[in-house]
Design a protein that fits this description.
Elements (H helix, E strand, L loop, with lengths): L2 H27 L2 H22 L9
Helix pairs in contact: 1-2
């Protein structure tokens, strides 16, 4: 997978899943700031790892 494909996958996951992810984490932790921080860390990890490891078959488990 090319770097452009990986970047596109990250952008799509962020655009399509950010709000759901933050909402789920907010319900779990009861704190919007913590939820947003955790979601941001998850996406930062994807930016670091997906180029080397590849995009997971199901990047957003549900």
């Amino acid at each position: 997978m090319s770097a452009t494909d990986v970047q596109g996958a990250i952008i799509r996951a962020h655009r399509e899943e950010w709000a759901r992810m933050v909402a789920t984490l907010t319900r779990r932790f009861g704190d919007l700031d913590i939820a947003e921080e955790a979601a941001a860390e998850a996406f930062a990890t994807a930016v670091e790892r997906w180029p080397a490891d590849g995009v997971p078959a199901n990047p957003v488990p549900g």
